[in-house]
Specification:
Radius of gyration: 20 Å
Low-confidence stretches: none
Number of strands: 2
Number of domains: 1
Number of helices: 9
Strand order of the largest sheet: 1-2
Distance between the termini: 25 Å
Structural class: mainly alpha
């Protein structure tokens, strides 16, 4: 599965200096204390106090954008869902990657989202990136002919290999193609 953008550096960055500034801004952002989620005490509706978890400012969508702008495969750093409960309750097998893709297409050009990039990624760059992004479709664990079979095979492999099994998206695509080929041979 080809999930990268050819010549991304030349396509999205003005020059080498702009690219290096982007890399430096990313390094600063991911090492910032703002990256980590934290617990905060806040006032509750009842008049008392409660503790809430505030997310950090780097999301999966930021990682997807970083991968694409660097020319890396979009799925780099993402793993397929292998939790039996999630797969049997209708989760997408590629949930994290698909959700990051969806947010990138619809929310990534907002000022708040672009803050971690410290001005090195602009709204104009994001609109060009969204146009150039490879399409990522959800792989359903409960619909169609292929999705449930892929989910079943993933769970079987995980059961056989135990906690040591950490599939990559390349493994998932291979499994997906294997199931599609089995279905086409069965139909023929």
């Amino acid at each position: 599965m080809n999930l990268h953008i050819e010549n991304a550096k030349k396509t999205f960055f003005n020059d080498k200096e702009h690219y290096l500034q982007f890399k430096a801004a990313w390094k600063k952002a991911v090492n910032s204390p703002k990256t980590k989620s934290k617990l905060e005490t806040t006032e509750a509706y009842s008049g008392g106090t409660c503790v809430v978890r505030r997310k950090g400012w780097i999301t999966a969508t930021h990682h997807l954008i970083y991968n694409l702008l660097r020319g890396y495969d979009a799925s780099r750093g993402f793993t397929p869902v292998t939790n039996k409960n999630k797969l049997t309750n209708d989760a997408y097998i590629n949930h994290g990657l698909y959700e990051a893709y969806w947010y990138a297409r619809y929310y990534a050009s907002r000022d708040e989202f672009l803050k971690p990039f410290d001005g090195t990624v602009t709204k104009e760059m994001m609109s060009r990136l969204v146009e150039a992004m490879p399409e990522i479709k959800p792989i359903y664990s409960n619909m169609g002919n292929v999705g449930p079979k892929v989910a079943k095979k993933l769970l079987k492999i995980k059961q056989d290999q135990g906690k040591a099994y950490h599939p990559t998206y390349e493994d998932l695509w291979n499994l997906y193609e294997e199931v599609k080929n089995e279905d086409s041979r069965t139909a023929a």
